[in-house]
């Protein structure tokens, strides 16, 4: 549905805004029902919680914008494959910034994933893969999406852990509600100032934007609860099942044909992520 939105004439920011416009009031109602039914008191809002959830929200906005722009340039399954480099990038940044050393096998697995990215980065019309293809706009956008999605997951888990006195579902939904409302306000303000009329166009396409908001809320709700239960890397690893649905959607919904090279690239990326979690 997000890819369909990209073809309606909405800007990348407008298509991203559609995720929050309709889901914000829905998640607020759901949160009220959850806490009221369980008799749970709302937790105090700390500075660290607000910092984590705001940073996560901004990173997720940037990641989604990159992905929507990418959908306009490459097919759906390839776009999702670029997004799935988030786990690989987290391993690299963890080693460089945090000193989380990887064994030799771990670095070998990362190289395997990099080869998959290199295969995907070349335009379908090219017979050979060039290292210069890594500088293509679609490759940069895909890797940026993976980076920001990975960062947002870490920040969201940090926000959930700040609510230690609540159960996993309450922590996840409380963090989700704050994240969506922050994203709605920040991106809405940007559109009003920089892309006048875009909010009206999002409302005009309400039949599909409302479905985007609903499915986004359900998916994000499950993801936030998972982040409150487990390490982000493991959550993302289980999320690789998304690749199966992406490939099926690309083939049967969008009628897009994936080349053998793109299929091999996607396979290497998924394989490297799974191996990294298992043996890295």
TrEMBL record:
It comes from the Bacteria. Keywords: Membrane, Transmembrane, Transmembrane helix. InterPro entries: EamA_dom, EmrE-like. SUPFAM superfamilies: Multidrug resistance efflux transporter EmrE. Residues 140-277 form the EamA domain. The chain crosses the membrane at residues 17-35, 47-71, 91-120, 140-160, 172-193, 205-227, 263-279. Signal peptide: none annotated. This is Membrane protein. It comes from Amylibacter marinus.
């Amino acid at each position: 549905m997000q890819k369909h939105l990209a073809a309606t004439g909405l800007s990348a920011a407008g298509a991203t805004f559609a995720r929050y416009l309709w889901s914000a009031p829905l998640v607020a109602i759901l949160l009220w029902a959850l806490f009221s039914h369980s008799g749970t008191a709302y937790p105090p809002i700390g500075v660290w919680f607000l910092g984590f959830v705001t940073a996560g929200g901004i990173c997720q906005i940037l990641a989604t914008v990159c992905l929507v722009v990418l959908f306009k340039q490459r097919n759906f399954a390839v776009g999702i494959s670029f997004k799935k480099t988030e786990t690989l990038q987290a391993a690299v940044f963890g080693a460089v910034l945090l000193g989380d050393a990887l064994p030799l096998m771990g670095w070998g697995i990362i190289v395997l994933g990099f080869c998959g990215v290199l295969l995907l980065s070349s335009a379908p019309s090219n017979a050979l893969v060039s290292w210069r293809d890594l500088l293509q706009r679609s490759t940069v956008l895909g890797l940026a999406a993976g980076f920001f999605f990975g960062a947002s997951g870490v920040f969201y888990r940090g926000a959930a852990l700040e609510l230690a006195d609540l159960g996993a579902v309450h922590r996840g939904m409380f963090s989700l509600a704050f994240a969506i409302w922050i994203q709605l306000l920040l991106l809405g303000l940007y559109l009003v100032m920089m892309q006048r009329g875009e909010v009206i166009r999002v409302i005009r396409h309400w039949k599909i934007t409302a479905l985007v908001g609903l499915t986004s809320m359900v998916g994000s709700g499950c993801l936030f609860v998972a982040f409150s239960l487990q390490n982000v890397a493991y959550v993302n690893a289980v999320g690789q099942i998304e690749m199966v649905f992406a490939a099926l959607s690309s083939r049967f919904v969008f009628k897009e044909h994936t080349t053998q090279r793109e299929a091999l690239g996607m396979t290497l990326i998924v394989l490297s992520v799974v191996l990294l979690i298992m043996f890295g």
